[in-house]
Design a protein that fits this description.
It is built from four helices and 20 strands. By secondary structure, the chain is mainly β. It has two domains: 171 residues, Immunoglobulins (Immunoglobulin-like), CATH 2.60.40.10; 132 residues, Immunoglobulin-like (Sandwich). The strands form five sheets. The protein has a five-stranded mixed β-sheet with strand order 2-8-7-4-5. Strands 10-9-12-18-16 form a five-stranded antiparallel β-sheet. It has a five-stranded mixed β-sheet with strand order 11-20-19-15-17. The longest helix is centred in the first third of the chain and has 14 residues.
Length: 326
């Protein structure tokens, strides 16, 4: 006897289809820090095992000091751009569909609170999520045309709205729910230090910038070499579907660093490690030309580095430097 898919799975599959339609490319924000910004959202760990939790936090740029408020939520799937990225199912509808097939939902809520950090608990039995994946991923051989890709875990969307004075920004992050507790899971990449050297200097010439109060002075209008400290092991090897969606294969993560500055300009807004194409030396090096004296009316400048992998891992680092006139 052929088993029919329960209504909850069918409804969620429709939601996945809606989210897939009209979804265009997105780009990292421009790396000049001007005004209130939401720069990144991070989950630790980025893949949540059955029965486990993840801690989620955000990197915001507050130009006039602390004052941000937070509102966190999650959603099983979002609409695309045409639907303003709203949740494709309300919490009430999602719970009703699950209850209809005997899934307990007493503790299930989309609301993750209003603290600076949020805690996300694995919400359902992994066998239910696996069945949703099987329903929504399309027929065998569908490849990239499939509606839902679960080879790295079931994807849910964590939403965040931040407010700062009269400014409001919303952002979303995909969080992966492992379907097998024993399967290898992604870890966040590691970004430990940032060093600086005068123009054309090498890493051997560079001084490590301290966290907290700045001690290193840079001259306005001058160019400096920047060196991020990222261990090569941060680019993990994993077994997953390629970008063509044809078949799973062993591959190495792609890493990206976005170099945010609150004055002057960098040679590259973003640098990349892509095995066989762009090496680690290209990922971790950049140059920063500080603004001219008349362009900066303060005695310090800030760098913010955001390191991402192509599986949802995130790390960041903030450093301030003192600035002096020529």
């Amino acid at each position: 006897m052929k088993r029919a898919h329960p209504p909850a799975f069918a409804a969620l599959a429709v939601g996945v289809a809606l989210a897939t339609q009209g979804c265009g490319s997105t780009f990292d924000p421009y790396n000049q820090l001007e005004g209130f910004r939401l720069l990144a959202v991070r989950a630790e760990p980025p893949t949540v095992a059955p029965g486990a939790t993840a801690t989620i936090d955000a990197l915001v740029y507050e130009p006039d000091g602390p004052g941000t408020t937070y509102a966190w939520s999650w959603c099983p799937v979002r609409t695309g751009a045409d639907g303003a990225y709203e949740c494709a199912m309300s919490e009430a509808d999602f719970k009703a569909e699950l209850e209809a097939v005997g899934v307990p939902v007493d503790s299930l809520t989309f609301d993750l609170g209003t603290n600076e950090t949020a805690t996300f608990a694995y919400p359902l039995d992994p066998t239910i999520l696996a069945l949703i994946c099987a329903t929504a991923m399309g027929p065998p051989g569908a490849g990239a045309a499939g509606l839902l890709h679960c080879d790295q875990g079931f994807p849910v969307s964590v939403g965040l709205t931040v407010r700062y004075g009269d400014k409001e920004i919303s952002g979303f992050k995909t969080l992966r729910l492992a379907l097998d507790a024993a399967a290898p899971a992604n870890a966040n990449p590691v970004l430990t230090d940032l060093s600086v050297a005068e123009a054309k200097g090498t890493r051997a010439d560079a001084a490590v910038l301290p966290a907290g109060e700045p001690t290193y002075t840079m001259v306005l209008g001058e160019k400096y070499e920047l060196f991020a400290e990222v261990p090569e092991a941060a680019a993990e090897t994993f077994f997953g579907t390629t970008t063509t969606g044809i078949a799973p294969t062993e591959q190495r993560e792609v890493l990206f660093i976005t170099w945010f500055v609150d004055g002057g300009s960098t040679a590259h807004q973003r640098t990349t490690f892509f095995e066989g194409t762009a090496g680690f030396d290209r990922l971790v090096h950049n140059t920063w030309t500080l603004p001219q004296p008349e362009e900066l009316g303060r005695d310090r400048a800030r760098l913010v580095l955001v390191l991402r992998d192509n599986r949802g891992g995130v790390a960041w680092l903030r450093r301030d430097v003192l600035v002096g006139r020529p």
